[in-house]
Amino acid sequence: MESLSTKHLLGIKQLNPNDINLIFETADNFKEVINRPIKKVPSLRDITIANLFFENSTRTKLSFELAEKRLSADVINFSASASSVTKGETLIDTVNNILAMKVDMVVMRHPNPGAGIFLSKHINANIINAGDGAHEHPTQALLDAYSIREKLGGVNGKNILIVGDILHSRVALSNIYCLQKLGAKVKVCGPPTLIPKYIKSLGVDVSYKLDEALAWCDIAMMLRIQLERQNGGEFDVKYFPTLREYSNMYGLNMQRLNKLKKNIVIMHPGPINRGVEISSEVADSSNSIILNQVENGVAIRMAVLYLLASTPSFSN
After folding, report:
1. Is the peptide bond before 269 cis (omega within 30 degrees of 0)?
2. Nearby residues of 157 by Cβ (< 8 Å), 6 or more positions away
3. Cα(139)–Cα(60) distance, rounded to whole angstroms?
4. In terms of domains, do 86 and 151 share one?
5. 130 plus 84 within the same structural domain
């Protein structure tokens, strides 16, 4: 059996195209499983997985938990707000105490960039990064690219536009890495204040005019404004004057779509701020594959869990 080139999923940056395609092929099989009347397989029956979420999450946490249960793993859910972390316990002590209970794999979301990489150097368990600050969110990028592959037959050669708060978005960075490794052309669009200065060094084009960028792309991936990462959650006027002005300049609505002389695919990683970066009419339209992304998230995460548990260096 083929295996991944790494024992952890810390970021897309650490994967090669063969790894990504192996994950997609494995997800194809699991997607068939989750559409059966009996949606469980015993693949991880003897594996215990801890979900460690030091930040709030709804979709990612539920998706991982469902993926783990579909694979028949034993699951432990950990919430930082109800743990000894609030008493000053360190990350390593917290995780080592959990591993002492014979946990095999850790799925972790953490507000600090690089937390998963740091942890991987100090504990003997497989780690999956479920989002680390504004750094990476690898499984989201994988499910996004998988959804494009499913909708358009492939990613290679496609023009993909990422619109919105690129500066604070771990989804944007992981998608740039993933889509480029699969041969796509990537462009970002948003206010100059929300485009990081380093972005062109990644081989990404930049546009500040949404209508021009939409005319170029095959797929538009809309991102929300991450108010919680801007000055501790308070709205900061230095990025743009008002949400209404942002929506007028960078929000996707049917009027903008109808101006195009072609159909484009609409994506959004969620949560959606309807009426800001995307209108309800567009989000619910036939162009949108937003719900397909959610469905594919379970199959992709099943594939990642299964493949990491099958690597030769698996901790068991």
Report:
1. no
2. 183, 184, 185
3. 9
4. no
5. yes
Same domain, residue pair 71 and 169:
no
pLDDT in tens, 133-177: 999 999 999 999 999 999 999 999 999 999 999 999 999 999 999
Count of the separate structural domains present in the chain: 2
**Closest to 34 (Cα-Cα) out of 308, 302, 306, 305:** 302
pLDDT by residue (tens digit) across 218-252? Answer: 999 999 987 655 554 444 446 887 889 999 999 99
Which residue range is the domain that position 222 belongs to? 138-294
Whether residue 51 contacts residue 79, with contact meaning beta carbons closer than 8 Å, is answered with no
- The DSSP line for 268-295 is --S---BTTTB-HHHHTSTTB-HHHHHH
Q: What gap in Å lies between CA 162 and CA 158, rounded to an integer?
A: 13
* pTM reported for the whole predicted model: 0.93
Burial tier of 32 (Cβ tally within 10 Å: 0-12, 13-18, 19+)? exposed
Bridge partners of residue 105, in order along the sequence: 49, 126
- 242, 301: one domain: no
Ordered DSSP codes for 92-146: HHHHHHHHTTT--EEEEEESSTTHHHHHHTT-SSEEEEEEETTTB-HHHHHHHHH
Q: What are phi and psi of 288, to 5 degrees?
A: -85, 135
